[in-house]
């Protein structure tokens, strides 16, 4: 799945992209910025944690260009207002703090293995 940076999307377009990503990808990180240039510390931390505990490739989605639309659509799937948000097999796992707690407990690698 590929997203074009800088593309202005309607809320319906964002909803379709979120739904498609959750249906098609095993692990999806909705983050501020890109894999190469995370734009907030929480997104960077979530990205690093997933990279450390996931052997296979995973999808990242930059929400910054359409932040409010992504917040609204993602909240429908997660009841979580903040970004980043990680989903595994279409189910919400958490943000960077939750991922860090799971890593400390030793649960993150197993959760990310699909």
Share of helix among residues? 40-55%
Give the beta-strand count. Answer: 4
What is the end-to-end distance? Answer: 18 Å
CATH superfamily: Glutaredoxin
Overall geometry: globular
Q: What's the structural domain tally?
A: 1
What is the count of DSSP helices, taking H or I runs of 4+ residues? 5
Note the beta-strand portion: 5-15%
- Major sheet: arrangement of strands: 2-1-3-4
Radius of gyration: 13 Å
> What CATH architecture do you see?
3-Layer(aba) Sandwich
Query: How many strands, which pairing sense, and closed or not: the largest β-sheet?
Result: 4 strands, mixed
CATH topology term: Glutaredoxin
Q: Can you write the helix and strand succession as a string?
A: HEHEHEEHH
- The CATH class assignment is Alpha Beta
Given the helix and strand composition, which structural class is it? Answer: alpha+beta
Q: Are there runs of 5+ residues with pLDDT below 50, and where?
A: none
Average residue-wise pLDDT? 91
């Amino acid at each position: 799945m590929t997203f074009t940076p800088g593309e202005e999307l309607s809320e319906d377009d964002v909803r379709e992209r979120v739904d498609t990503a959750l249906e098609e990808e095993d692990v999806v990180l909705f983050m501020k910025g890109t894999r190469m240039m995370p734009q907030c510390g929480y997104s960077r931390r979530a990205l690093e944690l997933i990279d450390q505990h996931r052997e296979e490739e995973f999808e990242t989605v930059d929400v910054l260009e359409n932040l409010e639309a992504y917040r609204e659509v993602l909240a429908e799937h997660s009841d979580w207002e903040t970004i980043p948000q990680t989903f595994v097999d279409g189910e919400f796992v958490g943000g960077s703090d939750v991922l860090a707690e799971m890593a400390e407990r030793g649960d993150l690698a197993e959760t990310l293995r699909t």
